[in-house]
Amino acid sequence: MVLQELADYITYKLIGLTPSSHLGKAVNFFIYDTTKIFILLTILIFTISFIRTYIPPHKVRKTLEKRHEYTGNIAAALVGIITPFCSCSAVPLFIGFVEAGVPLGATFSFLISSPMINEVAIILLLGLVGWEITSIYIISGLIISIIGGILIGKLKLENQLEDYVYETLEKMKKLGNLRAEIPDPTLKERYIIAKNETKDILRRVAPYIIIAIAIGGWIHGYVPQDFLIEYAGQRNILAVPVAVLIGVPLYSNAAGTIPLISALIEKGMATGTALALMMSITALSLPEMIILRKVMKPKLLGLFISILAISIIITGYFFNFIIG
Hints:
This protein is mainly α and 324 residues long. It contains 16 helices and no strands.
């Protein structure tokens, strides 16, 4: 609420734009989301980095390596549900999992489910669209997360991580036994480690996030809601893939997307198409893909996008068929 009031004050008072203008809406969205994302990222990256100083990566890796691959994917997808973060905020957790040696397939199951389904989204969905659509959304999101992670895990694409991540992983494996002999850092040292890692990650991704949010802000300000109904309505056989394509640059978290989805369903958009739009906004957002490019090589990123997009499209068509 405070951030929205700040964005309103800067946009409409200091800059002098009007709330009804396209430019005003775009600028307001940019200011609000940029501020929100960087606050969330800073808090989350620092917190995770600090906690990781208490958890030796080699122990995490050994514990998870003993799990059956399928149960690991299920567990990772379920963990994603209880982390109410947007797609961009889930990426630092993903990086931490990879660097700790968690199997790649399981990390992808987490990466898909974390922004797509969480307790905030579930509560809002129940209130706006009822338990039937909410149940459909949760089940389909879990299925996509688990299957997507299993497929990527089967392909053994660890070498498609960027070199610095892969080198860190290999180094951790080789030095795992030595790490146990290193004295635990002091509280001050943990703080310094977390602070430096936070600065480093933010410095590398900040320009790309700002560009992506600017694109999303332009679309929010200049693309009318009627456009979505026209090109992703019930009569268009290509409505589901069109909705997915439209949803990619429309960055938002699940909580911010649900009111829009509810309005689109009320205006006549098919349920499956609306759910596909919501999934693409939350799980295939442009800022997330830009951040992930810093971790993955193009082949792995392209495969992730393709599997997720195809899964979302199939889910949308399926639920359009059974629900309408």
